[in-house]
Amino acid sequence: MAEHFRDDSTAAIAVRIDAEHPAGMLIDPLQPQLRLTDLGATRGDGVFETMYAVEGLVRKFPAHISRLHRSAEILQIGIPPAESWSAAVELGISEFATRGEVPAHLSVKLVATRGVDGEPASEDPRFSGTYWILLTPVPESSLQRRGTPISVLLLDRGYTSDVHERAPWLVLGAKTLSYAVNMAALRYAEAHGAQDVIFHSSDGQLLEGPTSTVLLMTRTAEGTARLVTPLLESGILPGTTQGAIFAAAGRAGWELGYGPLQREDLFNAEHIWLASSVRLLAPVESVDGHSIAVSSELTAQLAAFLEDDLPVRHPESS
Amino acid sequence: MAEHFRDDSTAAIAVRIDAEHPAGMLIDPLQPQLRLTDLGATRGDGVFETMYAVEGLVRKFPAHISRLHRSAEILQIGIPPAESWSAAVELGISEFATRGEVPAHLSVKLVATRGVDGEPASEDPRFSGTYWILLTPVPESSLQRRGTPISVLLLDRGYTSDVHERAPWLVLGAKTLSYAVNMAALRYAEAHGAQDVIFHSSDGQLLEGPTSTVLLMTRTAEGTARLVTPLLESGILPGTTQGAIFAAAGRAGWELGYGPLQREDLFNAEHIWLASSVRLLAPVESVDGHSIAVSSELTAQLAAFLEDDLPVRHPESS
Questions:
Q1: ipTM of this model?
Q2: Which InterPro entries match (chains A, B) (predicted)?
């Protein structure tokens, strides 16, 4: 994921949201924009979402906004209403049009931090923190890599699968800016010849990737194909891409399942994918060096499910 | 700890370090200084230290710099040499003198992030990231609160005490910017009538506070007083304040001990303190509602140990 800004970062557009600009204000992403005392920068104390916009239309906007608000609620961070984020995204996309052309593929990152320590940005709690959107063209190289099979390592996330129920201070289930462990796990995988990671709990339950949701294709005892994903109750993020695929697959009559899943379920699965909003579906061809079958037909089928329910209007009107 | 910037943040002085300014350059902490794509802000992907300077002299500078470098090594972040940090701190302190007076009590925060995603700040790996120092007068209210007994909650950190040995990607032992869990634990304590937290591992070993090291005073079978702190091997940070106290206490003939410590050891201890660089020693008067004896004499004695080995010169010459 680190490559997302590499090829084309000068073309990014940024929008800030504050109490005076609840519908957003364009800011320059090449200039410094954050104070050194912003708790997002000093404590990883904030939340984010990364959305995907195709031809200027954001995919799964309601699911992302809903998860952003849930993350903010878990962290007790004030957060602008959905209309603000929607209008700000719209402003960013229009600015691309004004400058020439809206890129066909945009990564749209929404960030909310607790703001500057001890200095709320506004008395209105919905605008008390620091909020921005960064719209970045998805590099051609990332688009071309889509669907390329990847090797993953299975790594211990260190937590038991039941800890988040009794330890809300671990803020599991919130997509926070405190991603140092996720980034370190990806570096560890790269250093060991793999491209990505699937975390398991210390009691052996499958969890999620550092920036993705795990999907398995299994067979029932009767031989029926079944799409399965780990249990949310284990403290993982609800995957918006997984959610969209499951909704469409369900409508298409597929059998669906939710964990608990164990490490062995990976090796018994027919196929495995990592699902995320911009990379979409990454078929897994090996886990800890064990080969897993890949099927480009099924990968294409799951990708087609994601086209099943696309927005037809700009997010502001949804 | 959140109050550190509250009373007096406009008086803060900031210094940036980069390849062109390896000895530091003054920057305005009231102006935005960080890009939206800085991985410190978007991924909590950086490391920090908070030091304490009295009358312009930084305490435990070598211990802090050594821990900062160790944290950066665990995260594989390029980091300027000790001389750079030392010169930059010196520059900040001189600037206070130039503006009028060096505050008697300064909090000196050192921060190193991985820098802007995909755009190393320098080809020199020692300056590839983003680096700054923030010097903030310690508010009078914080100084007055020192030594005031506090109530703490004992909270599960979610990890087993042996996980960091087999899971280096959890970056335990590094003081990273990904502090969302630490901050959430402190909010949880405040919401439940306590002022601080002691974490234990999921297998019941005592670990550390979100921003402090735990010290216990116990008695040996023979009745000799003994100062004890949890085991570093459990994946906690090496406490610089605890280290300084132990060194001086050892010279004074005290008996010293290192864990493993269990939850019950807290309740069997004669006294408990949380040690940190700026707050110094916070005597614990209750754990999960159970009273713990406090002794202002012993708190004063431990504080005196911290005076035992003060710097007599500016950090650049140490």
A1: 0.92
A2: Aminotrans_IV (IPR001544), Aminotransferase-like (IPR036038), BCAT-like_C (IPR043132), BCAT-like_N (IPR043131), Class-IV_PLP-Dep_Aminotrnsfr (IPR050571)
